[in-house]
Design a protein that fits this description.
The complex is a heterodimer of chains A (about 160) and B (about 425). The relative contact order of chain A is 0.17. The radius of gyration of chain A is 15 Å and the shape is globular. Chain A is α/β, with parallel strands linked by helices and about 160 residues long. Helices cover about 25% and strands about 20% of the residues of chain A. Chain B is of the alpha/beta class. Chain B has 2 domains: about 260 residues, Aconitase, domain 3; about 150 residues, Aconitase, domain 3 (2-Layer Sandwich). Chain B contains 14 helices and 18 strands. In chain B, strand 8, helix 6 and strand 9 form a beta-alpha-beta unit. The radius of gyration of chain B is 20 Å and the shape is globular. Classes of the chains: A alpha/beta (about 160), B alpha/beta (about 425). Chains A and B meet through helix 4, helix 5 and helix 7 of A and helix 2, helix 3 and helix 5 of B. The structure holds iron/sulfur cluster (SF4).
């Protein structure tokens, strides 16, 4: 991941994309690879097929509400989701995403973003440029203690640095 | 400036004098709970091995196979087998299986004590707030960190104080109290925050009822849903042989809250959460008459002794409607045995109910009562998300156990008060 600059094409969803939508319970006994085919399927059966690495997942309020299941960010990550922009995130999902090295960025204006818009994210500076629409939005900057975990590549690499 | 319960517990766990909302602290964890569906098998076992680190304290780890028990197929059986074998190989003596949803098992076995910091790989870990604990759900990678270090970072939460005073009318249960609260605060209204439930209504509740309230804190986005522990908590634990090793905390009179809400219990009537969000709450009379196909009483939210007892009062001497199935899954083996001993299971069965194993099962559509496309279920569980109990073309209404029982009798959503 380039430091402070990510460009990509948008797939856009609305409010309350909960973990039962992202990772439907019926498929949780499958491997992450197999389960990822059903990611988002209750609202968008084509998600797994159309989302390509480098694309940006954008939603509105309360993304990832519900369960603590890490299969939600894991299946998204498997499909190539490195960055999620939403108006707000549910607490456990937010932490899970960070721990897996997924950038979770809050932006109050995601309602202005549409499917297939091209975004340029300068996430350390808190700026999102919508090239398609010629608009600029403010977004959250990662708190320093969280950026440390992301910079080292997630919580597991961080744990590797600890003494036994 | 005083401190809230959450601030006090976190300060203690972090070894500091004082904590206030917004600070980031590293807290020592008292118990770490893993279930089968999100426990060792999701990366934890594998990564713990590749990190080549030891578990910080085996006695503080609890593993419970509950979501996939009894297994519906070979895959689920394999996950339970893996969980069992991993626990044995790692010297986890606190391993439970086939005895009911993890949260009820934690509480019944004294793993959720007042004043402690507890984390679990399941989002409804917040239920132990009813014991006066600071308890919250975490993901599996975060759990891996806890297993290795025994610590976790928290941003000390702001607290919303919710005060319920007075006596609940007949036919109105703790479940109605929490649904009403969630309907008002909204499903994200308490995100990152703690909710503190106080007032005479809460004080007068037995533990079964308090647990139903704290269980649903995460449905308003909250980190914890805490209820001050008291002599009722003590008696509950003493009945299980636990008389020390914990501390009570209460918020100072000058503690700072980000918001305070007041309710009068007398004014509450039975409510339901309509599809597909838990805060989509309305009075039951507004949806009375909605046809249902399945009525479900169970789970770590609405399957305790008191829930089955109250439902049995509605169903006693009556029969469920033709074409409707009433499924009952007691929240634990302990609940099962107590209800069996007191004739409650017999009453429910005679009314036409089917008694199932204590399990997560139908609560998330894994087995024992998943619902088909086009079907409607009224349930005493905690989530009505799209597709949760089975088909994504089905619908779930959440209500109290007595409201579920009333709906089973009529085959339609109904006001339970006429049956009490
Ligand atoms: S009973 Fe339902 S809410 Fe409780 S732990 Fe099991 S699946 Fe989760």
């Amino acid at each position: 991941m380039d430091k402070n600059m990510i460009e990509g094409r948008v797939w856009k969803y609305g409010d309350n994309i909960n973990t039962d939508i992202i990772s439907p319970p019926a498929y949780m006994e499958l491997s992450i690879e197999a389960a990822s085919k059903y990611a988002m399927s209750p609202i968008d059966e084509s998600f797994a097929e159309k989302f390509k690495k480098g694309d940006i997942l954008v939603a509105e309020n309360n993304f990832g509400s519900g369960s603590s299941r890490e299969t939600a960010p894991l299946t998204l990550k498997y499909l190539g989701v490195d960055i999620i922009v939403a108006k707000s995130f549910a607490r456990i999902f937010y932490r899970n995403a960070i721990n897996l090295g997924i950038l979770a960025i809050e932006c109050a204006e995601t309602d202005k973003i549409s499917d297939l818009d091209e975004l340029e994210m300068q996430y350390l500076d808190g700026i999102i440029i919508n090239r398609t629409k010629g608009e600029t939005y403010a977004c959250s900057k990662m708190p320093a203690h969280i950026m440390k975990i992301i910079e080292i590549g997630g919580l597991v690499p961080f744990l590797e640095t600890l003494e036994k | 400036m005083g401190m809230t319960i959450s601030e006090k517990i976190l300060a203690k766990a972090a070894g500091v004098e004082k904590a206030s909302a917004g600070e980031i602290l590293w807290a020592k964890v008292d118990k770490a709970m893993m279930d089968d569906i999100l426990g060792p098998r999701v990366e934890i076992a594998e990564k713990l091995k590749s990190l080549d680190k030891n578990i910080w304290n085996k006695d503080k780890v609890v593993v419970i196979s509950d979501h996939y028990t009894p297994p519906a197929n070979a895959k689920q059986a394999e996950i339970v087998k893996f969980t069992r074998e991993w626990s044995a190989a790692n010297g986890i003596d606190n391993y439970y299986e086939f005895v009911g949803p993890c949260h009820q098992i934690m509480v019944e076995n004294g793993h959720a004590l007042p004043g402690k910091v507890i984390v679990g790989t399941d989002s409804h870990t917040c239920m132990y707030g009813a014991m006066g604990a600071f308890a919250t759900g975490v993901g599996s990678t975060e759990m891996l960190g806890v297993l290795v270090t025994g610590e976790i970072w928290f941003k000390v939460p702001e607290t919303i104080k919710v005060v319920w005073d007075g006596v609940l009318p007949k036919g109105v249960m703790a479940k109605d109290v929490v649904l009403k609260t969630i309907g008002d605060i909204g499903h994200a209204g308490a995100t990152y925050k703690a909710v503190e439930h106080v007032g005479t209504t809460i004080e007068n509740m037995i533990m079964d009822e308090r647990l139903a309230i704290s269980n649903m804190a995460v449905e308003m986005g909250a980190k914890v849903g805490i209820i001050p522990s008291d002599e009722k908590t003590e008696a509950y634990l003493a009945a299980r042989g636990i008389t020390d090793g914990y501390e009570h905390y209460e918020s100072d009179a000058d503690a700072v809250y980000c918001e305070t809400r007041h309710y009068k219990a007398e004014a509450l009537e039975p409510v339901v959460a309509c599809p597909h969000e838990v805060d989509n709450v309305t009075a039951i009379k507004n949806v009375a008459g909605t046809v249902i196909h399945q009525a479900y009483i169970g789970s770590c939210t609405g399957g305790r002794y008191n829930d089955l007892l109250e439902a049995s009062k509605v169903l006693k001497g009556r029969k469920i409607a033709k074409g409707v199935r009433l499924l009952i899954s007691p929240a634990s083996k302990e609940v099962w045995d107590a209800c069996e001993k007191d004739g409650i299971l017999r009453m429910l069965s005679e009314a036409g109910g089917t008694i199932l194993a204590p399990s997560c099962g139908a609560c998330l559509g894994l087995h024992s009562g998943a619902i088909a496309p086009g079907e409607i279920c009224i349930s005493s569980t905690n989530r009505n998300f799209l597709g949760r109990m089975g088909s994504k073309d089905s619908q779930i209404y959440l209500a109290s156990p007595v409201s579920v029982a009333a709906a089973a009798i009529e085959g339609k959503i109904a006001d339970p008060r006429k049956y009490l």
